[in-house]
Amino acid sequence: MTIEVRNLVKKFGSFAALDGVDLKVNDGELLALLGPSGSGKTTLLRIIAGLDWPDSGEVAFNGEDALTQGARERHVGFVFQHYALFRHMTVFENVAFGLRVQPRSIRKDEATIRARVKELLDLVQLDWLADRYPSQLSGGQRQRIALARALAIEPRILLLDEPFGALDAKVRKELRKWLRSLHHEINVTSIFVTHDQEEALEVANRVVVMDKGKIEQIGSPDDVYETPATAFVHSFIGESIELPVQVADGVVRLGDRPLRLAVDGLAPGASRLFVRRHDMLVGPPGSGAFEGAVQHVRNFGPVQRAEVALSGGQTIEIDAPRGRELRAGDTVGLEPRRYRIFAG
Amino acid sequence: MGLTLSWLSVIILIPLAGLFLKSLELSPEQFWNILSSRRTLNALRVSFGLAFAAACVNLVMGSIIVWALVRYRFPGRKLFDAIVDVPFALPTAVAGVALTSLFAEKGWLGAPLAALGIKVAFTPLGIFVAMIFIGIPFVVRTVQPVLQDLEIELEEASGSLGASRWQTITRVILPSLAPALLTGLALAFARAVGEYGSVIFIAGNLPNVSEIAPLLIVIRLSEFRYADATAIAVIMLVVSFVIIFAVNRLQRWAQNRVPVH
After folding, report:
1. d(Cα B234, Cα B225) in Å, to the nearest integer?
2. What is the pLDDT of residues A107-156, one digit of tens each?
3. What three-state secondary structure class fits B117?
4. At a CB cut-off of 8 Å and minimum separation 6, what does A172 contact?
5. B151, pLDDT greater than 60
6. Could you give the CA distance from residue A50 to residue A177 in angstroms, rounded to a whole number?
7. In this complex, is the C-beta atom of B166 within 8 Å of any C-beta atom belonging to chain A?
């Protein structure tokens, strides 16, 4: 099932939750909607599910208009951040719910329903919890049951709203891997919303980065990390050093200091320079584009994180490999191995 | 612990025990004769029967009111929310007088109803109306907080799993509210059984037709037949206790299906 979203606009009062969003989701893809809170990612997901309606724009499943259908007709599996399990039903009945509410004409007999639920509980590896109530499960178990429940109706699309947002870090990591292998197994077109970049980069085939109701970049996890399309993406994904620079007469300046950096195709004016922390190479004084004094060093396993006060007055944090140990008080030259400059 | 138990004893258990002791002045035969007299049986039937019917009406109407108050935003919502408490706060005699004048044959509602051939005031129907009036806040106030806490997400999940609105209500919402609904029902029922003030004004108080058990007790007391009065009181107590106990069990059963977490 492909999903196509065209020029979607949704306003809550004067706040534009979605401000002209276009998106194509390929069949069988696992797509992440990544952005800070208020970026519109959940609103987009809910509109695709039929739980919210846009002010204008189109949503099509396999080329067919989906906005004429309500959530009930769309056949979309939805997983909520806080599970939304039915508390008065056992795990088994929760998973069976979607099968039991089918119209009588297509409803399966009890034995088929039981077999299907068993199969789904096996799939999420929780068949031994069938007779428990949701309140007796851990958060991770609840979310897996919620997923099994959504899969019971053989959804055309699977939508997950911050599925691991309410779980602790360790469980979250386990479930990420599990979700990816599960998707590999069932191969249904899936979209999940997250504000956790690590989660998006680790789980998804493609990542859609959103901010303020707009899509900033769509690309593979490598794309969005290695070649961010906008300043927002660069600062949102991965740890970045950000410096205000001036571009004029083919030269980039940090304060008064000209930097030996290429300016190909850059518009003159105030700009921002972005460098990944680990892309800042440390050399002897005078060797690089920047010069600074090491203020403070901490070791994180294979890297040493150093706070460096640049000669222009700014303080930046860099990650240097261990081996050539840095010490507070050292003067160093810094050369960005890779960098991006964005206007504005 | 000791303090609460002593307090409970002084306030509730000792008066109840006194009631039982007083009724022991009667021989079992006398006791039985009082109970099985036509007037007593009819009074009990009117009290319990109408109270139960009124509680059932309150359960349905109360649920609808709660739904509107919790789920919709409309002008005057806060005012309506406050109005629900009026039967709590109003002295019951005032309620009785108000209802009687409203439903009397020349009253605002009584006149059009009389034209249709329906007589409310001074009939069992009047008792029923008064019992609905005083019981409604019990259902609303017990269910309201539970419905407020019921996440919309549950309904959304149900809908996206293919359930119709009706299936969502019967399979998701009502079972989640069941313990609260049962509590509301029990409270409204208990209140209606014990209601005296508002009912006697509108009831007409015809023996065997529209005479409620609490009134019969008062009548017996005014005739200085104290043992008779306590016998009726004891049987009311026992029946009420059995019903409340049954509702309690039902409630616990419903609650166990929705374990607290």
Report:
1. 14
2. 889 999 999 999 999 988 898 999 999 999 998 899 999 999 999 998 99
3. coil
4. A164, A196, A199
5. yes
6. 28
7. no
Length of chain B equals 261
In whole angstroms, give the CA distance from residue B186 to residue B139: 9
Please name the residue that has the structure tokens 């997983």.
A79
Q: Which residues of A touch B261 (CB under 8 A)?
A: 87, 135
Q: By C-alpha distance, which of B179, B186, B185 is closest to B258? A: B179
Closest CA to A335 of A291, A272, A303: A291
Two structure tokens written together for B108: 């605002």
CA dihedral A76, A81, A82, A84 (to 10 degrees): 0
Kindly give, in sequence order, each residue whose CB lies less than 8 Å from that of residue A85, ignoring residues fewer than 6 positions away: A94, A134, A142, A145, A146, A149
| Cross-chain Cβ contact A150/B161 below 8 Å | yes
A145 token code pair? 């049951």
Of the candidates A14, A28, A22, the one whose C-alpha atom is nearest the C-alpha of residue A214 is A22
* A305-315 confidence digits (pLDDT tens): 999 988 878 88
Q: Are B118 and B110 in contact (CB under 8 A)?
A: no
Q: Using the structure block, give the residue that is written with the tokens 């208009």.
A: A65
**What residues in B contact A136, CB-CB < 8 Å?**
259
Closest-CA residue of chain A to B151: A84
In what helix (H) or strand (E) does residue B141 lie, and over which residues does it extend?
Answer: helix B124-149
